UniProtKB/TrEMBL annotation:
Organism (species): Cyprinus carpio
Protein name: Neuroguidin, EIF4E binding protein
GO cellular component: filopodium; small-subunit processome
Chief location bin: other
InterPro entries: Sas10/Utp3/C1D
Start-end of Polar residues biased regions: 198-208
Length: 334
């Protein structure tokens, strides 16, 4: 009985807000439907030339339309109480979302050309003080002499070559992110790194009610590296030679040494400062280490030699080894 009363209170509280949302949704759907019908009518009457449009925009708008259709279908299934497990609409939504994410860098690059074409189509021509009018034109860099010097019979050898795209490592696109979005993403990354730290894992195991799991874990990769290091050491000691190491081997050995030296940082909790509200260290841009100043011993000797030469030239003495030695000894005693 108490549960029914609680459910009735929840329904009474949420019902007015739900009714308002449904009414606003109905009004928006009606306005969008009328606007789309007007556009379809103008397109059929050939008021808009759609045959020479950008295929990129056609693909983008079709994908958005398919995405909205699948979302609407899933919402209708959820309102009827049906299960969404193994539904093909979910796989289509994931595919369309992936394609749209891949199109974002290209959309950012084509933004200037699209804005210029749309403004030209609306106004008929660009104004003289339009900022889009002052974009550099690469064709102006080609001189007229170069254009006239090429004969008609000569062909550009690079024109018939097959285009080979550059091999660039894929990176996450963040060209349309603001500074606040970057800071928020950095804070989330620091929190995730803090949750994966050894301190949090130990606290979770200590205060968890679940039974402790004990298992024998064998890391074959570490065992193989330890065995190779032992064989390498035995060979160097028996043959009295020092084997060269590759860069990967040096980095791997440095990582193994770093794992054994974690006891020195056992009382440091800087890796969980993002969870306590403190300023965490930047993961992507760590603070550079200070370089130690190395004092060269040869500077003092060269300074004494310079002073000795200057005194000899002032007194116009003949330069010999005894004079140099006596002068350097006297300077040191001073």
């Amino acid at each position: 009985m108490a549960k029914l009363c609680i459910l009735q209170d929840l329904v009474d509280n949420d019902l007015p807000a739900a009714v308002r949302l449904l009414n606003s949704l109905t009004e928006q759907v009606a306005s969008v439907t009328s606007h789309v019908r007007d556009l379809i009518k103008k397109v059929r009457e050939k008021a808009y030339q759609t045959s020479k449009g950008l295929s990129f925009l056609d693909l983008k708008y079709h994908l958005l339309l398919f995405y909205l259709q699948d979302v609407t279908h899933l919402i209708s299934l959820k309102t009827e109480g049906e299960s969404l497990k193994d539904n093909s609409a979910i796989h289509r939504l994931v595919t369309i979302r992936t394609v749209l994410e891949k199109m974002r860098p290209l959309d950012q690059k084509l933004k200037y050309q699209i804005d210029k074409l749309v403004r030209t189509a609306v106004t008929g021509s660009l104004a003289e003080n339009d900022p889009l009018h002052f974009r550099p034109n690469p064709q102006n860099l080609v001189s007229k002499d170069d254009k006239g010097g090429n004969s008609k019979g000569e062909k550009d050898p690079s024109a018939s070559r097959k285009y080979v795209p550059p091999r660039i490592a894929p990176v996450h696109y963040d060209g349309d992110m603001t500074e606040a979005d970057r800071q928020r993403e950095q804070i989330d990354k620091q929190k995730r790194a803090a949750l994966r730290s050894s301190v949090i894992q130990e606290l979770r195991q200590q205060y968890s009610d679940a039974p402790e799991e004990i298992r024998d874990r064998r890391d074959f990769q570490t065992e193989r590296e330890s065995r190779e290091e032992l064989n390498r050491k035995n060979y160097e000691e028996s043959m009295m030679v020092r084997l060269s190491m590759t860069r990967e081997q040096r980095l791997r050995k440095r990582g193994m040494v770093g794992m054994t030296s974690q006891l020195s940082n056992i009382t440091r909790f800087s890796d969980i400062s993002a969870l306590t509200g403190g300023e965490a260290q930047d993961i992507d841009n760590p603070k550079p280490k200070k370089k130690k100043k190395i004092i060269k011993k040869g500077k003092k000797k060269s300074k004494y030699l310079f002073c000795m030469l200057r005194e000899c030239f002032k007194k116009k003495k003949k330069l010999d080894t005894n004079t140099c030695f006596n002068f350097s000894v006297s300077r040191k005693h001073k």
